[in-house]
Amino acid sequence: MNESINAGPVWGNVAAAKAAVDEAAGRVQTARRDFLKLFGYGSAGLVLGGLIPEAAVAAAAASGVSAANQSPYAAAFGFDPGLLYMNIGTTGASPTQVVKNAHQDYKAIAGNPTAYFFGQQVMRNTIAEGFGCDPYELVLSFNTTDGLWRIVMGIPFAPGDELITTNMEEDAGMSAYRMLADRFGVVIKTVNIPTNDAYSDAEVLARFKARHTKKTKAILFSCPIYLTGARLPAKQLCKWAAKKGIISIVDGAHLPGMVVLDLHDMGCDFFSGAGHKWQCGPGQTGFLYVRNGFDPNPQVVQRPTSDFAPFGVPSPMVGIPVPGYTNTNPLPTYYPTNTLLYGAGGILANGIRDPSHNVAAVLQLIGNGSRPTQNALVECCQMWDAWGRPAIEDYVVALAQYLRSRIVDSWGFDALSIPFAGFADASARTGLTSFNPFSPGFDYNADLTAAQSSAQGAASAAAVATLKNNYQIVIRNNSVPHTLRSNPTQNAAPGTFSAPLRISTHLFHSPADVDRVINALLEVVPHP
Ligand SMILES: Cc1ncc(COP(=O)(O)O)c(C=O)c1O
């Protein structure tokens, strides 16, 4: 998938990193052409109706604009003129056609009001393959936070059970595990995530293993870490957990739409991700996954098209390819916490699990929903599937690598949140880039006093505001418990956290956009 990115020794070599973006853009363009041929512009798929404005596509093709100046996907999005939006890590932006269709949908409902409880079985059938899972396991949730809470509240934790998590969880994960501690007496054990050259997948794995005891019931971690962009070795962590009989919960807020996501291959028991971030769906959309099988062999499963099928109503069926499970453990007890249909058809009654049960049907039906919102999310997923998720991942990663190469060129290797290699290591295969131009010596891992930390926080916030107000560039900063240069086994204590910048690069960006943010930063933040 990333042979060309792996092709040469391009340590800190900006030109080679840029060439890799061009190559990735070429693959993206091929995927887009194939997609247009396959569907034919303007044909109606399931909810698919003319995904890219025809005129914009024709104009992009005719203009011969180089990928260096414009992303092959830029024409599909409608950002305000002059705005360079690079905070997809917080929330994304829907393609123009999706916005139009959602608007029409909303208008139609206002014209002829309809209660909207059903219709999601077909949606789940449509998108599950794109995430490497069975439609029985995939729920359209409200967002990552919603999914995470529905996961942890559904697992019967008991006092003294231990949960291993990291020191870099987002508020959603932190709130969830803190509640487990307060309400159920769960003991929280924290792994410090290393940064800059202290980071390695092996080190992360070793730190999780060191926290394991006979009482460990679950692990909960983000992939990628929202503060640093490090894509933790999710499959290795879930595989280790499965071997130990531990439940794995992944906060994958950023994975859908950013990279290829194969949930059966990852091997997690539970996963929660955002629909509104990199997948570019509307606000208040997300994906909740509950593993509901253990057969290691891939299959084509027959799934109903009616929402009522799990409760005895006959339904036409469709065949859906489902990859085999890497996690072949028995299914953990899990209760639905929010449903109209508790126990219906025996599904999840008393937390009991059965691979033949349509778990998602029970978890999905939580009252009246928003048809335009869910249709829009599904439409985004169809676009990504049709455009090709591997090509999108390659483009996103190549662009991030170009950004990192420019950071290395101007601020040095030590400024980055994770180690930099010319080709993207597994941990670097994300569109989130974090670097710290405010720390002493441009060192991400520099030890800070409380006073330095506070000054850095102010400088970092001011830089984000200046970029927004004076340059129309939106990025964000974070407060990070980074690894200490003086002792790589330790992370900064509260009060001495660092305040690096975080930049998101997505499929609608180009190397010219990366140059623009770097040039602005060189005017706004300290550099050597
Ligand atoms: C790792 C992580 N988890 C959870 C969330 C919360 O996401 P949502 O708004 O989808 O609930 C975020 C948001 O930035 C995040 O970065």
What do you see in this structure?
With 528 residues, this protein is α/β, with parallel strands linked by helices. The protein has a domain at 122-377: Aspartate Aminotransferase, domain 2, CATH 3.40.640. Strands 2-8-7-6-5-3-4 form a seven-stranded mixed β-sheet, sandwiched between helices. A three-stranded antiparallel β-sheet has the order 11-16-13, with helices on one face. The protein has a two-stranded parallel sheet with strand order 1-12. The chain starts with a helix and ends with a helix. Helices cover 37% and strands 13% of the residues. Pyridoxal-5'-phosphate (PLP) binds next to helix 6 and helix 7. Pyridoxal-5'-phosphate is lined by residues 90, 143-145, 170, 172-173, 222, 226, 251, 253, 274, 286.
Mean pLDDT: 91
Bound molecules: pyridoxal-5'-phosphate
The CATH homology group name of one domain: Type I PLP-dependent aspartate aminotransferase-like (Major domain)
The number of distinct β-strands equals 16
- As a percent range, the share of strand residues is 5-15%
**Spatial separation of the terminal alpha carbons:** 36 Å
Rg over alpha carbons: 23 Å
Please outline the major beta sheet: 7 strands, mixed
- Low-pLDDT segments: 1-11, 38-64
Overall helicity = 25-40%
CATH topology of one domain: Aspartate Aminotransferase, domain 2
Q: What is the CATH architecture annotation of one domain?
A: 3-Layer(aba) Sandwich
| Form type | globular
> What is the number of helical segments per DSSP (H or I, 4+ residues)?
15
Order of strands across the widest beta sheet? Answer: 2-8-7-6-5-3-4
Q: What is the top-level CATH class of one domain?
A: Alpha Beta
Structural class: alpha/beta
